[in-house]
Design brief:
mainly beta; seven-stranded mixed β-sheet; four-stranded antiparallel β-sheet; 47% strand; globular
């Protein structure tokens, strides 16, 4: 199982970036894919999540209305479209996969931001928002 995150970079405030998380060794239908971020000196926090079973999506309050998570099953890839970026969005962004057991599936709406729910992690991609 591998997750490959890409798409980070330097962008001005108000700009946009699209991150990609390419999965191999498993199919998206069986997993929830989450995006997390970690700024220097901060805890890693959940940003967004998409369920493989029904496509439900979840967002942290800090990114609602600005970020959109989506998936392309044919490419086995999950995307995070980030618009109206702010300096406080600067962080290393990680994608992670959580196998959808029944218990996780029914409580994903509350469990998705918890790092210990995820079985596999990709390497990070740096996002820097600065003028």
């Amino acid at each position: 199982v591998q997750l490959q995150a890409s798409g980070g970079g330097l962008v001005q405030p108000g700009g946009s970036l699209r991150l990609s998380c390419a999965a191999s060794g498993f199919t998206l239908d069986d997993y929830a894919i989450g995006w997390f971020r970690q700024a220097p000196g901060e805890e890693r926090e959940g940003v967004s999540c998409i369920s493989g079973s029904d496509g439900s999506t979840y967002y942290a309050d800090s990114v609602k209305g600005r970020f959109t998570i989506s998936r392309d099953n044919a490419k086995n890839t999950v995307y995070l479209q980030m618009n109206m970026l702010k300096p406080e969005d600067t962080a290393v962004y990680y994608c992670a996969a959580a196998r959808l057991s029944y218990s996780l599936q029914v409580r994903l709406w509350v469990l998705w931001p918890l790092r210990d729910q995820y079985d596999y992690w990709g390497q990070g991609t740096q996002v820097t928002v600065s003028s």
